[in-house]
């Protein structure tokens, strides 16, 4: 079983297992992507990657994701701080603004998340900024701005760090959805 | 260079907000991460080359989900799912690329243009409506995709593997859209 099997609760030998194995390159590279972001050679400290992943899974109310990524976060006191953040930050997306012009009639207002004072104290400035960026990418990615990048840089995120952070949140947006969809497909065959 | 203000099938540029790795500075590992040597010309892929391992795995995932058509969902409908996902998230650049591909493989210019102009909910005929509705439901955060969408897809003629391909195509664009939207901007 790979990470998506675990998240989607796909058992070896099941119909969904057989279905996934008909696209072995997709299956193997979805797992290689997970390994590149969460394995021993990944960039960024594991504490940062696991904290962001647990926050993203929490924002998506994805329970299997919270279990998988929560287990990677050894820093036990952080779990409660992260859970408090995703509970107060939860909303529904995608929303956001379009560039000035005809599309602005489709603008959808939604919350812009700022981490709580307690969350900032528990997580530190670097992770606090990452959480604010992650929330935007999860719920309102079209509101991303160069200013948000400058905010990350101001608390020590380098260019490669920011690329990895974007990959991390964006990959989770794929992986948790792929697993959600496959879980629903399995349910329809039961 | 100006920012596009509508969804379009026109060729757009993409301008990074962070400095890509210079072509002459690419390490062997970064070149390997690009997978396709022609991508050294792309600022987007050279920016992602700052983390080459995830770039390589991402690129191979992308190519198989969209290009491996030995079986499963027709290419046109994988592209439709990518365009619909990008339309809903608001990635004008991604939508332009995959709307062009959707037209190339389906020849349904008017329907693809209707999706770009009207968004999710544009009437594209039952099979395409079922696909865009499913892509939109999976793109919602948290995802809303479930039994009613699968039922509608089955009634429209999609089998299990085709539905799995649609799930992967839409889920993948939730990855791609967030990279393109967070690291730079489209330009005309």
Overview of this protein structure:
The complex is a heterodimer of chains A (190) and B (188). By secondary structure, chain A is mostly helical. Chain A has one domain: AhpD-like. Chain A has nine helices and no strands. Chain A has helices at 3-8, 15-21, 24-38, 46-59, 63-70, 76-89, 117-139, 146-154, 159-189. In chain A, helix 3 (24-38) packs across helix 9 and helix 7 packs across helix 9 (159-189). The radius of gyration of chain A is 17 Å and the shape is globular. Chain A starts with a helix and ends with a helix. The mean pLDDT of chain A is 97. In chain B, strands 1-2 form a two-stranded antiparallel sheet. In chain B, helix 5 packs antiparallel against helix 6 (109-118) and helix 7 (126-139) runs antiparallel to helix 8 (147-155). The mean pLDDT of chain B is 98. Chain B is 62% helix and 4% strand. Chain B has helices at 28-34, 43-48, 52-67, 75-89, 92-106, 109-118, 126-139, 147-155, 160-183; strands spanning 13-16, 184-187. Chain B has a domain at 75-174: AhpD-like (Up-down Bundle). Chain B is mainly alpha-helical and 188 residues long. Classes of the chains: A mainly alpha (190), B mainly alpha (188).
Can I get a quick summary?
By secondary structure, chain A is an all-alpha fold. Chain A contains 9 helices and no strands.
Spatial gap, N to C terminus of chain A: 20 Å
Class by helix and strand content of chain B? mainly alpha
Ends apart, CA distance between termini of chain B: 6 Å
Report the CATH architecture of the domain at 75-174 in chain B. Up-down Bundle
**What does the average pLDDT of chain A come to?**
97
Largest interface: A-B, 67 and 62 residues
What's the domain count of chain A? 1
Give me the secondary-structure topology.
The complex is a heterodimer of chains A (190) and B (188).
Chain A: H1 3-8, H2 15-21, H3 24-38, H4 46-59, H5 63-70, H6 76-89, H7 117-139, H8 146-154, H9 159-189
Helix pairs in contact in A: 3-9, 4-5, 4-6, 4-7, 4-9, 6-7, 7-8, 7-9
Chain B: E1 13-16, H1 28-34, H2 43-48, H3 52-67, H4 75-89, H5 92-106, H6 109-118, H7 126-139, H8 147-155, H9 160-183, E2 184-187
Antiparallel strand pairs in B: 1-2
Helix pairs in contact in B: 1-3, 3-9, 4-5, 4-7, 4-9, 5-6, 7-8, 7-9
């Amino acid at each position: 079983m790979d990470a998506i099997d675990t998240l989607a609760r796909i058992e070896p030998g099941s119909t969904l297992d057989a279905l996934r194995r008909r696209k072995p390159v997709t299956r193997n590279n979805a797992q290689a992507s997970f390994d590149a972001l969460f394995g021993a050679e990944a960039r960024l400290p594991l504490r940062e990657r696991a904290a962001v992943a647990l926050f993203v899974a929490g924002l998506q109310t994805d329970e299997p994701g919270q279990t998988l990524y929560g287990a990677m976060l050894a820093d036990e006191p952080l779990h409660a701080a992260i859970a408090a953040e995703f509970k107060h930050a939860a909303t529904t997306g995608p929303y956001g603004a379009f560039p000035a012009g005809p599309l602005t009639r489709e603008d959808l207002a939604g919350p812009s998340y700022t981490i709580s004072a307690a969350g900032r104290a528990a997580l530190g400035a670097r992770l606090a900024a990452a959480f604010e960026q992650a929330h935007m990418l999860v719920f309102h990615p079209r509101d991303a701005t160069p200013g948000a990048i400058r905010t990350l840089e101001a608390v020590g995120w380098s260019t490669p760090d920011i690329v990895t952070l974007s990959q991390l949140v964006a990959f989770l947006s794929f992986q948790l959805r792929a697993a959600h969809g496959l879980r629903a497909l399995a349910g329809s065959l039961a | 260079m100006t920012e596009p203000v509508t969804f379009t099938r026109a060729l757009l540029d993409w301008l990074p907000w962070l400095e890509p790795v210079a072509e002459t500075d690419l390490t062997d590992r970064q070149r390997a991460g690009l997978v396709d040597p022609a991508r050294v010309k792309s600022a987007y892929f050279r920016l992602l080359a700052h983390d080459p391992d995830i770039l390589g795995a991402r690129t191979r995932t992308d190519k198989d989900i969209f290009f491996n058509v030995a079986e499963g969902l027709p290419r046109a409908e994988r592209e439709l799912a990518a365009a619909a996902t990008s339309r809903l998230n608001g990635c004008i650049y991604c939508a332009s690329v995959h709307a062009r591909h959707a037209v190339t493989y389906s020849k349904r210019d008017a329907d693809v243009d209707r999706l770009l102009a009207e968004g999710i909910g544009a009437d594209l005929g039952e099979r395409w409506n079922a696909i865009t509705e499913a892509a939109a439901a999976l793109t919602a955060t948290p995802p809303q995709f479930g039994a009613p969408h699968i039922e509608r897809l089955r009634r429209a003629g999609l089998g299990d593997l085709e539905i799995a391909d649609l799930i992967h195509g839409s889920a993948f664009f939730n990855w791609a859209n967030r990279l393109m939207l967070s690291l730079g901007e489209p330009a005309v």
